[in-house]
Amino acid sequence: MPSKREIIDDVAKYLRHMQNNGSDGVAIDPAIFDAQTAKPEQRRGKSEPTASADRAANLREIAGRIDQCRDCPLGETRNKTVPGTGCLDPDIMFIGEGPGRDEDLQGLPFVGRSGKILDRLIKRMGYSRDQVFIGNIVKCRATEDYQMKKDRAPSTEEMGACIHYLVEQISQVRPKVIVTLGNTALEGLFGFRGITKRRGKWLEYEGIPAMPTYHPSFLLRGGGDQGKRFWEVWEDMLMVFDQLGKQPPESS
Ligand code: URA
Predict the structure, then answer these.
(1) Does the domain spanning 49-244 belong to CATH 3.40.470.10?
(2) Who lines ligand 1 at CB under 6 A?
């Protein structure tokens, strides 16, 4: 777990980087600021019913708002929104970057090539897709020049406009552990990049242990589930099992 000093240094580095790249401010949704600064008992407060039927209804309501959302330009070009799928109270919530081509067409997260790698990881861990939750930092496909041809990472502004949906989803899903996949997920949730240095080291999000690891598309470029990077991800997942107080399945 990084010290407060390391976190402050990282934030300062990130802001300097943004400034050097021409940004003169960081867009923070007031709701996120309130969520981050509220005391834990306030965070769990009034708007968060505990009954799972209520939380499932809240998740559907969030997905409905995502579906209507036009808060950034991605809302103008997408085919389908991709709010995320899975169960309530899972051991693990995986968080990726945002939909690609296949996800945009189907409205489901991680159904393209990198999704196949994520599926294999989930299976190897002894879970099925509906026993975890899979979400993303942004809910609409980001493409170069908004042409819907070549995928790109979402911009800081696009992430800033969308992140409150994920914040809300996490508070309804209530995973035991969060696994962030790649740099965009790390940046979207924690505000800093550097996945190579950060992977395999615990962070914490709203009191939930969070493990940063590589994005499946990075694994695809490095030998898929036979490559060295996959085994590095697997090492990170062993730490997740440890945190959950569980053993990985025998066959893995
Ligand atoms: N990559 C992501 O980060 N998320 C998806 O849903 C699909 C591909």
Answers:
(1) yes
(2) 82, 96-100, 103, 109-110, 112, 114-115, 136
